[in-house]
Specification:
Elements lengths: L4 E5 L8 H10 L4 E5 L9 H13 L3 E6 L11 H10 L3 E4 L11 H20 L3 E4 L10 H11 L4 E5 L7 H11 L3 E6 L1 E2 L5 E2 L5 H11 L8 E4 L10 H12 L2
Parallel strand pairs: 1-2, 1-10, 2-3, 3-4, 4-5, 5-6, 6-7, 7-10
Antiparallel strand pairs: 8-9
Helix pairs in contact: 2-3, 5-6, 6-7
């Protein structure tokens, strides 16, 4: 059985510096960190990225991915993001599929986004880096069918997707979404928001996470990483408990 690594998105604790995030993740028994471009590792700051990579490794953790805010716009550059990803030593960059939800996008919007994603994926692949779509509302990757459509239209082995539970959807619905995209899912964002965007402890949705990880661990290509994203109240004191819950799900 392929192992899924438990980890943390650094954006969970935007108010803390990177060194504090590393300390918290190590204390919580996590294995990997996805570093965010918004605060902890700004895009293009190669020196900072290399420093964070070293400090992460020195703590016994791995930098698994770079969480960017590239949205495949026609005038957006990916190069500084890839520079930072290289300096971090990661082989996956999380990106966003445009600025519009799939139901609001025109054929032209789709065409433009696909074209930019093709170019971006080719640029990343030339540097040995893969891109992964944020599975998120307000983008073209907001449902399983539209995510599969994007992946098919771009048609590159260097493009994959993340998965996360759609806010306010039922357990059966979100698991169905995962099943549709599981073969191309390289990471999962793990959080319990219910019934809408109220942040709850992971254990509040045991019915979701127990079933999700049982399925994810059983597919031929499980997500490589399961990344805690946000905790109730952004409280660092809760991370140990959330990480313990995540590790328990992964031991199924």
């Amino acid at each position: 059985m392929t192992k899924i690594r438990p980890g943390l998105c650094s954006v969970t604790f935007r108010a803390l510096d990177a060194e504090e995030v590393i300390g918290l993740a190590a204390e919580a028994g996590l294995e990997v960190i996805e570093w965010g471009a918004d605060v902890h590792v700004p895009a293009g700051d190669i020196e900072r990225a290399a420093q964070v990579a070293t400090e992460t490794a020195d703590a016994g953790l791995a930098s698994c991915s770079y969480g960017s805010y590239f949205r495949a716009g026609p005038d957006e550059t990916l190069t500084p993001i890839l520079d930072s990803a290289e300096a971090l030593g990661v082989d996956r960059v999380r990106i966003w599929a445009g600025h519009l939800g799939s139901s609001d996008a025109t054929d032209v919007d789709w065409s433009n986004t696909v074209s930019r994603l093709r170019d971006a994926t080719a640029e990343a692949e030339d540097r040995g880096i893969g891109l992964a779509l944020e599975f998120h509302s307000g983008t073209l990757a907001d449902t399983a069918p539209t995510t599969l459509r994007l992946l098919a239209d771009v048609n590159s082995p260097a493009l994959s997707t993340y998965w996360q539970p759609t806010v306010a959807a039922t357990v059966d619905t979100v698991l169905g979404e995962y099943r549709e995209i599981s073969a191309q899912t390289t990471a999962a964002h793990v959080f319990s928001w219910w019934p809408a965007q109220e942040r709850l402890p992971l254990r509040a949705r045991d019915a979701l996470w127990t079933r999700f990880f049982a399925e994810a661990l059983a597919v031929p290509r499980p997500p490589r990483d399961a990344l805690l994203e946000f905790v109730p109240g952004d409280d660092p004191a809760l991370l140990n408990g959330e990480a313990a819950a995540l590790r328990s799900y992964l031991s199924i």
